[in-house]
Amino acid sequence: MALNSTVYTFTVHLADVDRGVYEELELRVARHPSETAEYMMTRLLAYCLEYQEGITFSDGGVSSTDEPPVLIRDLTGRLTHWIDIGAPDADRIHRASKLADHVAIYTHRDPTKVLAALPAKRIHQSDQIPLHSFPRTFIDSAAEALDRRNVLTVSVTDRHLFLELNGQSFSTPIEEHQLAN
């Protein structure tokens, strides 16, 4: 018998000063049984940091090979932003960069190792694909503060992330790396 996803709810107060985005969001995030809390936390932060009209979590879940965990479609339904999480392989990123206008990767893993796994293959427009990383200690601490119902304040100023989750405060710079190809 297959295990069901666990649904987490988030009341998000988003203030991204860098992009001029200020929103109040009510999100229901399904956590697949094979998904770690750290991966889900990174996926949630990627959603907030890329937030704009049309953003959504993938219908296929975290194990989908056809869609990214977070995506943005325009009003016609065309995929415009492919937002991947973790350490996607080069073929997936190459395909994504041909399908979408914008591709970004967010990871809680060691960015050096993620980048080291990529140069062996060609990636379409790799110089335009950012890899955003969060320190593992930051993600681990935030993931430990997760409950089934959460209140989250996300503030971004000068590429520094300030996070309040269920009364606990965390902060980290958002590191950006470029894919080398």
Structural descriptors:
single chain; 181 residues; alpha/beta; Restriction endonuclease-like alpha-beta roll fold; six-stranded mixed beta sheet; five-stranded mixed beta sheet; 4 helices; globular
What's a concise summary of this model?
This protein has 181 residues and is α/β, with parallel strands linked by helices.
Structure description:
It is a single chain. The protein is α/β, with parallel strands linked by helices and 181 residues long. It has one domain (6-178): Restriction endonuclease-like alpha-beta roll domain (Restriction endonuclease-like alpha-beta roll fold, Roll), CATH 3.10.640.10. The protein is 21% helix and 39% strand. The protein is built from 4 helices and 11 strands; from the N terminus they run E-E-H-E-E-E-H-E-H-E-H-E-E-E-E. It has helices at residues 37-49, 90-99, 111-116, 136-144; strands at residues 6-16, 21-31, 55-57, 70-73, 79-85, 102-107, 130-133, 149-157, 160-165, 168-173, 175-178. The strands form 2 sheets. It has a 6-stranded mixed beta sheet with strand order 3-4-5-6-7-11, with helices on both faces. Helix 3 (111-116) links the parallel strand 6 and strand 7 (130-133). Helix 1 (37-49) crosses helix 4. The radius of gyration is 16 Å and the shape is globular. The chain starts with 5 loop residues before the first strand and ends with a strand. 29% of the residues are buried. The model has no long low-confidence stretch (mean pLDDT 92).
